[in-house]
């Protein structure tokens, strides 16, 4: 039994129809979903599921192999038809921040050989920890400017699926020190910022870097000799 992950095909899809395939203690397993389960620093999606005339908030997600469970707080009968609606403003903010961190870690990798040692993607602020021993506070203005220059190129963002074995042949696709990219049905998603960067990632992203908006570093900490912590905030494109 598995859940069809509609968000992998179209991260902009906001509503869907599905069947309840199992239910237990306020959690429901659906045949298909637009709700991302979270992972790699990206939190799970929120939204609502309607069934038999009642609407229930989705407050959590749980991944069990190929199955995705939705926390709705009530029992939904197996076989029931449901209509799901994504909390789109929250999801789109997470997509913008997630894509920002791709730009950030790509530049850190290109300039300093850095890898991601931790991340927490948020709606208003995101944190990324990078293993960049040569980076200092004096580098912040130039690094921030470089990130915004890449964002301003309006690079197309696209995803494809490759065999898991490809990661052995192209280790540069893995940018994390501790977390391996998720494998779904034997494949790994490769997210490419056209002509600039490609890396393995199972998250959701915007279609173009121009959707990210202007980025700024609001806090910087040394977390040991080789680890630097960056906090980033975004200004929406319409406000720049």
Task: Explain how this protein is built.
With 240 residues, this protein is an alpha+beta fold. The protein has 2 domains: 4-86, Elongation Factor Tu (Ef-tu), domain 3; 90-239, Threonyl-trna Synthetase, Chain A, domain 2 (Threonyl-tRNA Synthetase, Chain A, domain 2, 2-Layer Sandwich), CATH 3.30.980. Helices cover 19% and strands 38% of the residues. The chain is built from 4 helices and 16 strands. It has a 7-stranded antiparallel beta sheet with strand order 6-5-9-2-3-8-7, with no helix packed on it. Strands 10-11-16-15 form a 4-stranded antiparallel beta sheet, with helices on one face. α2 (88-112) crosses α3 (140-151). The longest helix has 25 residues, at 88-112. It is elongated and about 60 Å long. The termini are far apart.
Q: What is shown here, in short?
A:
The protein is of the alpha+beta class.
Briefly note the structural class of the backbone. alpha+beta
- Major β-sheet annotation: 7 strands, antiparallel
Based on CA atoms alone, the radius of gyration comes out at 19 Å
Number of strands: 16
Second rung of CATH, namely the architecture of the largest domain: 2-Layer Sandwich
Which consecutive residue ranges, at least 5 long each, have pLDDT under 50?
Answer: none
Strand content: 35-45%
Mean pLDDT across the residues is 94
Proportion of helical residues: 10-25%
CATH class of the largest domain: Alpha Beta
Total number of domains: 2
Give me the CATH superfamily of the largest domain: Threonyl-trna Synthetase, Chain A, domain 2
CATH topology of the largest domain: Threonyl-tRNA Synthetase, Chain A, domain 2
Strand order of the largest sheet: 6-5-9-2-3-8-7
**H/E element sequence:** EHEEEEEEEEHEEHEHEEEE
Coarse shape: elongated
Distance between the termini: 46 Å
Count of DSSP H/I helices: 4
